[in-house]
Specification:
The complex is a heterodimer of chains A (582) and B (610). By secondary structure, chain A is an alpha/beta fold. Chain A has helices at 19-25, 77-92, 108-115, 150-158, 193-196, 209-217, 248-258, 266-286, 301-310, 324-340, 357-361, 383-392, 414-417, 424-438, 476-488, 520-533, 543-553, 559-565; strands at residues 2-6, 9-13, 49-52, 59-60, 71-73, 138-140, 164-167, 174-177, 203-205, 222-227, 262-265, 295-296, 347-353, 379-382, 456-463, 466-474, 495-499. Chain B has 4 domains: 34-125, Up-down Bundle (de novo design (two linked rop proteins)), CATH 1.20.1440; 134-217 and 540-603, Fumarate Reductase Iron-sulfur Protein, Chain B, domain 2; 227-321 and 470-531, FAD/NAD(P)-binding domain (3-Layer(bba) Sandwich), CATH 3.50.50.60; 323-468, FAD/NAD(P)-binding domain, CATH 3.50.50. In chain B, the strands form 5 sheets. In chain B, strands 3-2-1-4-18 form a 5-stranded parallel sheet, with helices on both faces. A 5-stranded parallel sheet of chain B has the order 6-14-7-8-9. In chain B, strands 10, 11, 12 and 13 form a 4-stranded antiparallel sheet that branches. The chains are: A alpha/beta (582), B alpha/beta (610).
């Protein structure tokens, strides 16, 4: 332990504590900007500088460890002046357009500039930017970039993708694409983690809300919206609701107020996915020698993009099942529309996803299985876009009441809910696989070993006498370690769940942002709570799923199921459809 | 009549000249980094500030050049802009009135031509070709073997000498040899020069190895049973063998001489690198699992084809051990000896006796200084270094020249040997022609014969140290591609067209330094491992103390001292005195820890494996 003084407050901290954390322990806040805990402590913005008694120059609090007996001053005249100047300098290279910025009200630069009472920037503005393909699902606006480097760090170190890189030198230093490629030339999987780790509005998803508003405005169009599992864990964050207040029922109610005709649950399609993927797994296990192992889940389009971009030879190891988003589209445009007597061309299917890659996935033509030339899912929004729609429609949050998803595609089980957390797909699949093999339901919590925030988890379960070796990875760097271990033969598995985002969809790149705070774990817990409280906890017990099989798909993995619910991932184009040269 | 005034520089001008030196230091230490186009822009801007403002090309042209380069940097340039830059620079060069204008324009022209690709990349992609990663920690980038310099300096400062050595050996097994004789290119880029002077990196490395006490065994990967033949037991061959042994392979060195060490033994005199200490360092490496065959020459003793048949890969690291000839009359006379021959004999322990002899050493490189200073130690009556260019044009390091002078060698600059005077087939003198420095070519003035008759100086012995050549003929016959004696390899060290054969060190680069040979050995070890289908990374296995933030008051650099001339000039014992603890601690403390401050913090500060 080390004794130090911070602004004359004595505090005793462990020797490897930074000045920033020691100050926090003493109840003293030091502002930061580029810093992101456990990701970025590069001392670039110099906003966290503090004075060390006896030293002339200031030091960065974020990456300097305390020294025994030191006295740190966080608010001396020298610190105040330097901190303010540095923020003013950052503002010269930042296109300050708060009134029209997607991050206004949730921007660390805006916060720190306001906190420091900066009313005017005395220096000449010098914002430079580059052209960006505005049709791409991920948008970078370099004029707003403050060069904190977080996007590079998260992409390199958490995701192992190395898409972003520093570009140019000196005052012209900025962030560009590695190898000076264009975004279409990169292997960006569209996980969106750079967006959720950006402190300002330099990175965002392509906004598709106007297309949704147009559909809502068209009296001839029936609007059907599906909500992914993880969305319900986070939608209330930016609306001032606590996790307890932001119930799925209120979310449904809010969407009803926006005017959607049918509000359905992607969790229904998650249950459907389990039927297809689980059956596929058991089928492959029965003919083990015909396949390469392990089988991989296919619900995460970021992960599927990784495979397409980097390991296309292993695509046959992916389950051929579509993602829940796409299964929903196919089921809705067959099972539900037949029921209602609706025509595909008169329906707009919208999804709300915690995900940026889903915007790409809806445009993959091989996914369009109901009507040629028409997507099964028309528009995919992120959770953030949904929140923006609620705000721009001035939906009164305090007046929301408990509401219910519509029938029949709003019926889901606890197994479907947990899809949004890392390990959830695995656990849901195992619950149903166990039933399929033994004819009996297991304890629904029998497979809880695959829960939790470890980036790479493994377990072996007994499936009626056959051991099933499974692994779960989230975060693409963890995934790459897992794949390398498989290559080297140091591990062997039968079934592997991969989610591109750390913590799974709960930590998705389309989720509401809270700066310098990883929320996947807490958000995932919301789903486990929903699962615990659910009446039905097994996908095969979902009555709507059972009915859909009776009326449309026949059996899991039947010919019709294959036509509508499975896909050939080989055929997908890596470049988003809307960005293809035509 | 008006009275004259003694001009005194104003305070502002005195500060300008002080800052000019600081700027020089900045540019020197930053010369490895940055964007060439940014550099050209800054250079033009600075040049323009020197213009007196009289003539048009300089006054207006230079600032227009500045604008054009800025356009390129701002992403607003086109290929036409690049063309205009060149045309304008040429026009300034041709028509400016004084050297401020045409000198600046000439530099710009050089830059524009040399940086063509960079300019074009900026225009096409609005981006620098040079990426920042490789240049972020200046000393590490400056070291050919990329040794973790801030890391081991911090460990020395913490008194953890064995850990410092372990850290150095991650990238360079020759800790002692480099601690004593490395040319330390790292120090050229040391950022401490921006405050006072570069850190004495070599001195601290020597201090680390001389104070490391704990024995340890580096990590070895499981045995692979793959055999690698290494031709040449010099710094490059030994380095490759050492790392290949750690990677689990079975390296075998074939060395044509009696001892290992290559030019470290047969080129560098013992007073700079004591034999027994070199042997101890080599023994440590060999004990990691290197098989050694001494007195074995390829292809005389074992054919190249046999090696190819019996080994999974081959590393050719034969160095540059043949001497260059002067090509003048009398060169075959008794008493003429090449530096290579003399140092080779000494390397095998056979010291000639020069007692009472007048010695001429021909040449101006480090080897010339080595033989001159060795001659002093061998009892020579006088030693004269004859060089056809000026002292400042010598390729020898300044401290080597100064050392030779201090030990009583005479430097006869601007004298070109013309012929060797002989009597009865024995040397009696050297006929030299006085030179004057002429036109500059390749950075040095060409020597031109002065308008005066040659003179003959009396000497008893002439030592020729005018460079080495590579003995690569036999390899060329075996199908290895060569050019002017150099064995050709690609950027991975692979010999063209022969699978599994690698090349590196002096025989690939031409005569260079130990650290470059080590770097090549390291690269080839990695690439042979990869070629054999493995991936055995050499990993960092010590923890580096965290950097401490504090003010950095300017503080003088502690240079290495040498034993008194009177004591040292009669023996071959180590000439350089060791650092005291006081000196070492102060020097280690001067390190700015660029692994933590600056770009180091962003990129993780160090390489954790290679």
């Amino acid at each position: 332990m080390v004794k130090v003084k911070i602004n004359n407050t004595k505090v005793e901290v462990s020797a490897d504590t930074t000045i920033l954390d020691a100050a926090a322990q003493a109840g003293i806040t030091i502002p930061t900007l580029c810093y992101f805990r456990n990701l970025n402590d590069i001392a670039a913005c110099r906003v966290c500088v503090v004075e060390v008694e006896g030293m002339e120059r200031l030091v960065a609090a974020c990456n300097t460890k305390v020294q025994p007996g030191a006295h740190y001053i966080t608010n001396s005249p020298k610190v105040r002046a330097a901190r303010t100047t540095n923020v003013e300098l950052i503002l010269t290279q930042h296109k300050t357009a708060c009134t029209t910025c997607v991050r206004s009200g949730n921007c660390s630069l805006q916060d720190v500039a306001t906190d420091l009472n900066i009313l005017d920037v005395p220096f000449e503005l010098d914002t430079r930017g580059d052209k960006w393909n505005s049709r791409y699902p991920l948008i970078r606006e370099n004029k707003k970039c403050i060069k904190c480097m977080r996007c590079i760090q998260v992409c390199n170190n958490i995701q192992g993708m190395h898409i972003w890189d520093l570009r140019n030198h000196g005052s012209r230093t900025t962030i560009g694409l590695s190898g000076d490629a264009t975004i279409n030339e990169t292997k960006c999987v569209l996980c969106g983690q750079c967006i959720t780790h950006c402190p300002v509005g330099a990175l965002r998803e392509r906004d598709d809300t106007d297309r949704v508003l147009a559909a809502l405005a068209d009296p001839d169009i029936t609007t059907v919206i599906q909500i992914a599992p993880a969305v319900r864990t986070a939608w209330g964050d930016a609306l001032g609701l606590t996790r307890e207040e932001a119930t799925p029922g209120k979310m449904v109610n809010a969407l009803r107020k926006l005017g959607f005709d049918y509000i359905f649950d992607t969790d229904f399609a998650a249950d459907l996915t389990i039927m297809e993927e689980g059956t596929e797994l058991l089928g492959r296990l029965a003919n083990r020698d015909d396949y390469e192992w392990p089988m991989f889940t296919s619900c995460c389009p970021g992960w599927v993009r990784y495979m397409k971009g980097n390991r296309s030879e292993q695509i046959p190891q992916l389950s051929s099942a579509k993602s829940p988003q796409q299964m929903f589209g196919a089921a809705m445009k067959t099972y539900f529309m037949q029921e209602k007597g609706l025509e595909p061309s008169k329906v707009c299917c919208i999804s709300v996803m915690p995900c940026v890659a889903k915007k790409y996935e809806v445009g993959v033509e091989e996914m369009w299985s109901v009507e040629k030339g028409t997507p099964d899912v028309d528009i995919s929004l992120t959770t953030r876009e949904m929140v923006r729609m609620l705000k721009s429609d001035f939906v009164s949050i305090e007046d929301l009441v408990e509401d219910e998803f519509d029938h029949p595609l709003g019926v889901a089980t606890g197994a479907g809910h947990i899809f949004g957390a890392t390990g959830g797909v695995m656990e849901a699949a195992l619950r149903t696989a166990y039933f399929a093999v033994t004819g009996e339901n297991p304890d629904p919590d029998a497979f809880a070993d695959v829960r939790g925030m470890d980036g790479w988890k493994e377990a072996t379960f007994d499936l009626a006498g056959t051991p099933l070796r499974v692994a779960v990875a989230s975060g693409l760097a963890n995934m790459q370690r897992l794949l390398e271990a498989l290559d080297e033969g140091t591990v062997e598995y039968d079934f592997v769940e991969i989610m591109a985002c750390p913590g799974g969809c709960a930590g998705g790149g389309g989720q509401p942002i809270k700066d310098n705070c990883e929320q996947a774990e807490a958000r995932g817990q919301v789903l486990y709570k929903l699962d615990r409280r659910a009446d039905l906890r097994f996908s095969h017990e979902n009555p709507s799923v059972q009915e859909a099989y009776e009326k449309i798909f026949g059996e899991p993995n039947s010919h019709e199921a294959h036509r509508l619910l499975h896909t050939n991932q080989y055929a997908w184009s890596f470049v988003p459809r809307e960005c293809l040269e035509r | 009549m008006a009275r004259l005034e003694i001009t005194r520089p104003s305070e502002a001008h005195a500060t300008v000249s002080e800052l000019t030196q600081d700027l020089g230091a900045l540019l020197t230490s930053g010369s490895m980094a940055g964007c060439p186009v940014e550099f050209a822009g800054a250079m033009v801007h600075t040049c323009a500030s020197q213009s007196c403002g009289k003539c048009v090309p300089c006054r207006i042209g230079l600032s227009q050049l500045d604008h054009l380069i800025t356009q390129v940097l701002d992403g607003q340039g086109t290929l036409k802009t690049v063309e205009m830059i060149e045309t304008l620079a040429e026009s300034i060069y041709l028509s400016a009135d004084c050297a401020v204008g045409y000198g600046a324009a000439q530099s710009v022209l050089t830059a524009v031509i040399a940086f063509q690709d960079d300019f074009r990349h900026h225009v096409r992609r609005n981006s620098c070709l040079t990426k920042i990663e490789g240049t972020s920690i200046p000393c590490i980038s400056g070291c050919p073997a990329n040794v973790d310099i801030p890391g081991y300096i911090a460990l020395v400062g913490a008194g953890r000498y064995t850990d410092a050595v372990r850290l150095i050996r991650k990238d360079n097994p020759f800790v002692l040899a480099c601690g004593l004789i490395c040319e330390h290119p790292c120090e050229l880029s040391c950022r401490r020069a921006l405050i006072d002077d570069p850190i004495n990196i070599r001195g601290l490395k020597r201090y680390a190895i001389e104070h490391a006490s704990d024995s340890y065994t580096p990590f070895h990967y499981e045995k692979t049973d793959r055999k690698i033949a290494i031709i040449g037991g010099g710094p490059s061959g030994l380095t490759a063998a050492y790392y290949l042994a750690l990677m689990g392979h079975e390296p075998t060195i074939f060395e044509q001489r009696e001892h290992l060490g290559g030019m470290m033994r047969y080129g560098i005199p013992a007073y700079r690198l004591p034999r027994e200490r070199l042997d101890a360092e080599i023994d440590f490496m060999v004990s990691q699992g290197i098989e050694v065959h001494l007195n074995t020459r390829i292809p005389d003793d074992i054919s190249f084809e046999d090696l190819k048949a019996n080994y999974d890969a081959i590393y050719v690291a034969i160095g540059a051990h043949n001497d260059n000839k002067l090509g003048i009359e009398g060169e075959d006379a008794e008493g003429v000896m090449s530096a290579v021959e003399m140092l080779r004999k000494i390397g095998d322990g056979s010291y000639p006796d020069f007692a009472g002899q007048r010695i001429a050493v021909i040449g101006g490189g480090n080897v010339a200084m080595d033989v001159a200073r060795s001659s002093v130690r061998l009892g020579a009556e006088s030693v004269t270094i004859v060089y056809r260019r000026r002292i400042e044009d010598m390729t020898a390091q300044r401290e080597e020249i100064d050392g030779a002078i201090a030990e009583g060698c005479e430097l006869l600059e601007l004298h070109a040997p013309q012929s060797i005077a002989t009597e009865d087939g024995k040397v009696v003198g050297l006929t030299v022609q006085r030179q004057i420095p002429g036109e500059i070519s390749g950075g040095r003035p060409r020597p031109v014969a002065a308008d005066c008759p040659p003179e003959t100086l009396p000497f008893d012995r002439i030592l020729v140290a005018i460079g080495q050549v590579i003995d690569s003929e036999e390899f060329a016959k075996a199908g290895v591609a060569t050019s002017r004696g150099r064995i050709l390899g690609d950027e991975y060290g692979e010999v063209f067209d022969i699978d599994g054969v690698f090349v590196g060190g002096d025989c690939e680069t031409g005569p260079a330094t130990v650290i470059r040979a080590v770097a090549a050995g390291k690269v080839v070890a990695r690439n042979i491992d990869d070629y054999l289908g493995y991936h055995h990374p050499i990993k960092l296995d010590v923890e580096v103390p965290p950097a401490v933030a504090r003010d950095r008051a300017a503080c003088g650099r502690s240079n290495m001292l040498e034993r008194k001339v009177a004591d040292r000039k009669d023996d071959f014992d180590l000439m350089e005195s060791p650092y005291s603890e006081q000196e070492a601690m102060q020097e280690a403390d001067r390190c700015l820890r660029c692994d933590h401050f600056g770009m180091g913090a962003f990129l993780g500060g160090r390489s954790f494996e290679w």
